[in-house]
Automatic annotation (TrEMBL):
Residues 66-205 form the DUF3857 domain. It comes from the Bacteria. Residues 1-18 form the signal peptide. Keywords: Signal. The keyword Zinc-finger does not apply. Residues 297-406 form the Transglutaminase-like domain. It comes from Sphingobacterium puteale. This is DUF3857 domain-containing protein. The keyword Signal applies. SUPFAM superfamilies: Cysteine proteinases.
Length: 656
């Protein structure tokens, strides 16, 4: 880019200062600003914030984006202290990188009528690498307490003009006023898009002096000011993807770069451009195309495999076990052969290596790039490689396609981990057309509980409890087990922490057989499971997995409920009754059966005793689709509320 500009004889520039508010000008009256009318539950709020992004020219870099962010926040209570810590993400690619050119921050306290300022020092600022592409500058503002006003301002410089800084009008705390200003010379043409449901309050466009010249004269510029007032906080809740998908954020895409009376460079990518760039890149296509690069590792794995499904499943299991994921997402591999030798690597090292191995085995395999759930949706508005942070493998076996992510050692063949279930990814074939690939779980997340035992007259319950898990419930438990030194240690700790029941013995089956349910078998004893009340023995019929808290508590939710998979939970109890007690007609609970429209979710509860000495208790909860729309939110909320109320009911046995 720099050479391209230099050849056009661009020269002369200056930083046109924006109408930022003054740093450090805190008055006594600022501490009395009230947020009550906007949000009575806020832990902190933004009094005022200002941002600006200007495309400028420097002799050492060429065109750059100079970005300023200035924020003033009032901390209301201890839960708001975390807002005194802020992070500046900085993108890097090859020898080019974004840098922080200025940073300052302070906290302010009111003592009597006097405002006391405490400045942040260099000791409160440090850097860390988040991934191969992102580094972070982190800062902590000192001397924060309830009622403190904090303020920070920083400036960055970026050579990546294709990535004009986005602006987050809506965040986790409410804001009284937010302003963002862009200054774009006419040689750059950006498209702007606004996510979220809150509209821009004000938008003003005017000309400004860029200070830039070309061979044919002065280059004009356009200044645009965007403002919002009284912005409510975005409230995150369970079962959602990244909040970036739903908050009000304005972002920009560079369409083209053109010199007056000169050449034009088009930056608008098509998906074919993206595919070509990635396949030509040594860190992506180069790692996939060398079919013999992993021969020494792969040949022993394939020995004796006489069909395609065996080949694919063996290779998937091999990469799962052979390379430990270093918890770094990337679509670019360093070197897949090195990763196999060192037995560690990023997501691209592992999964591009898997694609390479599948192709070596004469299988039809290609990479699929995606954005993980916590990274937000990618590619919705335009092709942009920077929005994707992860890559997986797709293999065709017969007429069926399988998605594979070997970064997770706990998912069975064909089921991608939950972090990847994020709407859609993009296929990147070596030849042919790129296309969208739906990212979804192939397995329901399920758990079945089966108990057979005896209830004693003193209220103690003894018996065998068997739990079987599939899908993400199984992979989560396998991961928890792997986190302990041994199964004995895991269940001993669980026994110590769970004061409700005692585990006398345990057995785990299929822990390493990912294609089978993970089974746990216990001999348990629960003292005071039932209590004597007026000649009746009463108990709540749940050992574990009882719903006690409603995950949905918002008065309004404007984004989908995303479970990530179908969910099924079943429980079956067969309890021998103590001598002298019966499940009398006058104490019997009514059976429960309820469902949402079109049976999208269902709950049943049933108690029977055809044998007067044995009580059979059955319950089941099902969510029969992975995604519910915002208009279904209140139905789901009420559904959970009714389950909670139903599961509070006790079963009573009458003394004969």
């Amino acid at each position: 880019m720099k050479g391209f500009l230099t050849s056009l004889l661009l020269f002369g520039s200056f930083w046109a200062h924006a109408q930022d508010f003054s740093f450090g000008k805190i008055k006594k009256e600022d501490f009395a600003i009230d947020i009550g009318k906007l949000d009575t539950a806020a832990n902190a709020f933004v009094i005022r914030e200002y941002g600006s992004a200007q495309v400028n020219y420097t002799s050492h870099t060429g065109l750059v984006v100079e970005f300023v962010k200035h924020v003033r926040i009032k901390i209301l209570n201890k839960e708001g202290y975390n807002h005194a810590n802020f992070t500046i993400p900085l993108y890097k690619s090859g020898n080019d990188r974004e840098v922080v050119t200025e940073i300052k921050a302070a906290s302010y306290h009111l003592q009597g009528d006097k405002v006391i300022e405490t400045e942040m020092t260099k000791a409160n600022v440090f850097n860390e690498n988040s991934s191969e592409d992102i580094s972070l500058t982190k800062a902590a503002i000192p001397q924060v307490q309830e009622g403190t006003i904090i303020e920070y301002r920083y400036k960055t410089e970026s050579p990546f003009i294709f990535n004009l800084n986005s602006w987050e009008f809506q965040e986790e705390i409410p804001k009284l006023y937010s302003e963002y200003v862009t200054r774009i010379p006419e040689i750059c043409h950006y498209k702007s898009n606004l996510k979220g449901g809150i509209p821009i309050k004000g938008r003003k466009t005017e000309n400004y002096n860029t200070g830039l010249h070309s061979e044919v004269g002065e280059i004009l510029g356009e200044k645009t000011t965007y403002t919002m007032e009284n912005i409510p906080a975005f409230h995150s809740e369970d079962y959602m993807t990244s909040s970036k998908n739903f908050r009000s954020i304005i972002f920009f895409e560079l369409g083209r770069y053109s010199i007056p009376m000169g050449p034009t460079k088009d930056f608008s990518l098509t998906w074919e451009n993206v595919r070509e760039k990635l396949i030509a890149d040594e860190s992506f296509g180069g790692q996939v195309k060398r079919k013999g690069a992993l021969k020494e590792f792969i040949d022993p794995v394939l020995q004796g495999a006489n069909n395609d499904i065996t080949k694919a499943s063996r290779l998937y299991a091999y990469f799962q076990k052979q390379i430990k994921w270093n918890n770094k997402h990337s679509i670019y591999a360093k070197n897949v052969k090195d990763a196999l030798e060192k037995r560690t690597g990023n997501s691209a090292d592992i999964n591009l290596g898997l694609v390479n191995a599948l192709r070596y085995a004469q299988l039809e395999a290609i990479p699929v790039i995606l954005s993980t759930r916590d990274n937000g949706y990618a590619g919705l508005y335009a092709p942009a490689m920077s929005e994707f942070n992860h890559v997986i493998a797709q293999v065709k076996l017969g007429e069926e396609y399988y998605l594979l992510d070997a970064t997770s050692p706990y998912e069975p063949f064909g089921n991608i981990p939950l972090k990847c279930v994020n709407y859609q990814g993009r296929s990147i074939p070596l030849t042919g057309e790129s296309d969208w690939v739906k990212l979804e779980s192939k397995l329901p997340s399920s758990q079945s509980n089966f108990f057979v035992g005896e209830l004693m007259e003193n209220g103690t319950l003894k018996g065998k409890w068997v739990t079987s898990r599939n899908g993400y419930m199984a992979s989560r438990m396998r991961e928890r087990l792997q986190g302990s030194n041994s199964e004995e240690e895991f269940y001993e700790k669980w026994d110590e922490e769970n004061n409700r029941f005692k585990i006398n013995s345990f057995k785990v089956s299929n822990r390493d057989s990912l294609d089978k349910p993970l089974a746990e078998e216990f001999e348990i004893e629960i003292e005071n499971f039932a209590s004597l009340q007026n000649d009746q023995l009463a108990f709540n019929p749940y050992i574990d997995s009882k719903t006690t808290k409603n995950p949905f508590n918002l008065t309004e939710r404007n984004y989908p409920i995303d479970f990530g998979s179908l969910i099924q939970e079943e429980s079956y109890m067969e309890i021998k009754l103590p001598k002298g007690y019966t499940y009398a007609p006058e104490t019997k609970l009514k059976n429960i059966s309820m469902a949402l429209p079109e049976r999208a979710a269902r709950y049943i509860f049933k108690v029977s005793n055809s044998d007067p000495n044995v009580l059979l208790i059955e319950s089941a909860t099902q969510f029969n689709k992975p995604l519910f729309l915002p208009e279904e939110y209140f139905d789901l909320k009420e559904f959970f509320s009714r389950i909670i109320q139903a599961q509070k009911l006790d079963i009573s046995l009458k003394k004969i």
